[in-house]
Amino acid sequence: MLAIDAREVEKTFRGGWMRRRQTPALRGVSLQVEPGAIVGLLGPNGAGKTTLLSILATLLLPDRGDVKVLGVDVCRNPTAVRRRINMASGNASFLWSLRPPEILAFYGRLYGVSGRDLRRRVDELIGTFELEAHRRTPYNELSTGLKQRLALAKSLLNDPALLFLDEPTLGLDPDVSVRIRRVIAELRRTRGMTIVLTTHYMREAEDLCDEIAFIKGGRILARGTADALKRQIRIGDIIAVRTDPPVPAMLADAQGVLRCVASDGWVECTVDAAEKRLPELLRTLHMEGVVVRGIEVREPDLEDVFVELAR
Amino acid sequence: MGTRNVFFMFELLFWPVVGVLTIGLMTRFLDVTQEQRSFVLIGQMAFSVVGTCQLDVAYAVLYDFWSKSMKHQFLAPIGVRHLTIGSWLVGMLRGSLVFALTGILAWWAFRFDPLAAGLPATLALLAGCFLTAWIVGVLVCTLIVLFGGRAETAAWASINLVLALAGIYYPVSVLPPPAAAVASGVPLTYFLDAYRAQFGFPAVYSNAIPTGLALAVLYVALSHLALVAAVRRARRTGQLLKMSE
Fold first, then answer.
1. Residue contact B77–A107, C-beta within 8 A
2. The domain A4-231 is classified under which CATH number: 3.50.50.60, 3.40.50.300, 3.40.50.1820, 3.40.640.10?
3. CA nearest A163 in B: which residue?
4. Preceding amide of A245 cis, omega within 30
5. Shortest CA distance to A264 belongs to which of A241, A284, A285, A291?
6. How many angstroms separate the CA of residue A289 from the nearest CA in chain B?
7. Does this model's pTM top 0.90?
């Protein structure tokens, strides 16, 4: 049984006078996720990532399409789905006057955990997410990083089989982000949890996800492992050159150069094949009397794929 | 803890106590009879109980709305009924405390004994107050889920409709006929009428308790269905997510 089986999901938001203004958010999205996988949803702002996640988490109803989560229809039986899933958002907010253990206890009760079990679970999560020193701090006095850790702790209260993470490291310091990524990886390793996350950070997706789906304009444009996507998109190789004087126009006109971008004294050329074009480019620069101060050849990373797809 | 409890205690004590004191003192200034004083004090106490309990029911949604944590509540495997019944139980507890406190105050300051009507009549009045509070509170929740912040004032304003129509400070017979017709559709009107009859006031309605109960049950069911429909609509339109941003 698939952890997620969504087929041809459509969602349009309506607003304005008589709800005439229509904003399509999802246009026939299909997504299948195997149990135990970590899947990343990547895409520019307004692509439909959070809409898809919200539908899968039963917070939003689709206009059309079939959505089954852990084998249960999210429209027909949302309560059964909710028992086995949970969600943490990058911009999560909880009752502002409560303290971390009180927040966890409150939501724990909503998930049917009570008494000694609840106290044990709360203590365990407070420990795991290093919130011990902030037991008595009201929620609205916690830092962004602590709030994020608390949101993650809350999302594990019911030991979910499927966890949705919406921008889990949004706005966090790099060291906190790294710690949270480690926790996410650990969850899959130790508990076999299926995780679907949305993120803007390519590094995060590349580090954590078994599979990545690129969403844009409410459609999944590409899907696969990070390496497969790089091959699938075929955006060529990248040759970065630092010259004296800078000559981006000359490089852009050279044969086999698909695109040139200049920044910080470097010119990044995307070429069809680096092994063929590098000697040609160097020869052209030498003949024109341009001094080459630095050169770098690399395969496109996920960020390049993202930029290409988001065009 | 202290800061949070100031708000809690203020809501529990301040308004109900101020209400009974000002109304009681006004009756002293107007030099009304003890029966008339009992009439308005009963109304004031019932109003305080309904007000406190309905706010607690509304808090089922209001607190999450204020703290933008609505989606977490609806992500949990609980139904709308769990939210409203849970907060109603808290409301009944606080409402009972308000009734006891204002009752002691009314007895001490104005020689009005609310238990003189007997325990069954007092419990029937409290039941009427709590059922009315449920209806008003759930309707406030419905409006907030439907319209968000625009409906926030309904939490405080709606109870005043009950004040105007249910015969809190005057018998419904003094209302203009159209308003009196509307008042006869408010359950609390019947429960107040039955309770006051125990203090010798002529009953306006025959079978007041069964009629009030039947109306209350009908409205409880309708308001519950309205909230369920509102939550479903909010899931369809994305309002649930907007209230969490």
1. no
2. 3.40.50.300
3. B75
4. yes
5. A241
6. 57
7. no
